[in-house]
Each structure stands twice: as structure tokens, then as C-alpha cells.
Amino acid sequence: MIRLVLPYPLRRLARLGPEVELECREPVTLRAVLDALEARYPMLQGTIRDHATGQRRPFLRIFAGEEDLSHLSPDAPLPTAVAIGAEPLQIIGAIAGG
Predict the structure, then answer these.
(1) What gap in Å lies between CA 35 and CA 32, rounded to an integer?
(2) What does each C-alpha distance from 90 to 12, 52, 98 come to in angstroms?
(3) pLDDT tens digits along 71-97
(4) Distance CA 90, CA 68 (A)
């Protein structure tokens, strides 16, 4: 079971609690987790990844613990602690300002 923490606007859109648990196929990659999330909650399609390119939306960051995974390949294996459900994968809305 993969544990996933989403930002409040996405939780509200999908009517979810603070943490989501998902079954994910092996190997556990970001692409596999997001595919499972979008399959289970279709209203989230296009909110984390662009529909056309499949790339992460610019103002979202992805963390495992304190490690920023935002710029890793979507097919890179996730850390073991995330893959076994000991630690959640966190999707966080970035803050920009000037």
C-alpha cells in the first residue's frame, strides 16, 4: 500500500481525507503511483500532470520525507520507505511570490 498526501485543493476536489492509500503495481515509480491515483479518482486527471505531456504541473513539488523528487524521472523507483508504505509520498503546492 502506498500512502499519499495531497494538497488541500486536490483533497477537496476528490473529497478525500488528509492521506490516501493506494495499491500500486511494481515497480513503484511516481508514474505508477499517479496512474493508480488518477484511475481511482478520475476527477484528479490533469491536476498533477499535464494532460498532453504527462509532465508535473509547475507549482507542485513531490517529496519523500525531506527528499525533493520533483525533478527525477517519473520512471525512477521511489525510495523503499515510500514503496512499502512506511513513509508517505507528499505532493505539495509550491508558493511563488515576488
Answers:
(1) 5
(2) 16, 23, 25
(3) 999 999 999 999 999 999 999 987 776
(4) 10
